[in-house]
Amino acid sequence: MKIAIIGAGAMGCLYGSYLSKNNDLTMVDVSKACVNTINEKGICIEEKGDILYFPAKAVLSGDLDEKMDLVIVFVKAMYTDQALDANRQLLDENTILVSLQNGAGNDRTLAKYADLGQIVIGNSEHSSVFMGPGVTRHAGSGITRVGSLGGHKSRAEKVSKLFNASGIETARIENIQEIIWRKLMVNLAFNPLTTILNSSIKGVKENEHSWLLLKLLIQEALIVAEADGTKLDHQEVFDEIDVIVEKAGNGFTSMYQDIANGRKTEIDNINGAIVNQAALYDIDVPYNRMMTRLIKAIELQCL
Questions:
Q1: 6 - beta bridge partners?
Q2: Residues contacting 214, CB < 8 A, separation 6+
Q3: Is residue 201 within 8 Å of residue 271, measured between CB atoms?
Q4: Which DSSP helix (H) or strand (E) runs through 71?
């Protein structure tokens, strides 16, 4: 299959390393250093003390003029529109367009560039750390879940089969909104707290005060999700949070890494998304609002 991954950061390179084995893969990125490194050395993955290289092609964003069977978007949420606009020539009516990005609202952006039936949204339990151009440390593994926005189950099933055949454990689920909300729960819980507290994921649970804050953030979001039409089992959500802590351990979130490396965060698409959605239903979410403002304050101070 002809695949393009837009965004050769930590997660893009991780998934690219798997998909490069049996597919015609091209990595697309705005960084010349990243593109050159991948073309010269391949995608480098650090995993369990081993250094592995996976041959792959890479091009600068906008330079590839070839229709793809599958396009996966792995840029940060606030750059999705810009990235797809620069690479719209990769898409036609047969292309499957996939987002495994953090945050909420990515589906609405993708729908500007492809019909709903072409769009597959998902989440990933994998965690990875960007170590440099074309170099990623695989920090934690888990399942990938995908679903179709337009009711075209065959597209999501095709992505699931492709991922599984490439070594990425993947399940197709029916309720795509549940995927989006469950993923958002994890991100809104750990991303701001690890960043503000300069903490690992495990450290958030080990601190009774931050763990209480995490629960309050999620409880607010669960109320908003139900008002929006997605009722989640509260205990299942908190059980999933415990699993994330167990798997990620001393790993750090993407938001923590963004601030540490002087990059803008995705806070508007994570806790900020809860604040915006809550306003539609006249629900007060003071904890998520405070986290959004604190991260924005840190951005202004550090960037």
A1: 28, 73
A2: 189, 190, 193, 204, 205, 241
A3: no
A4: strand 70-73
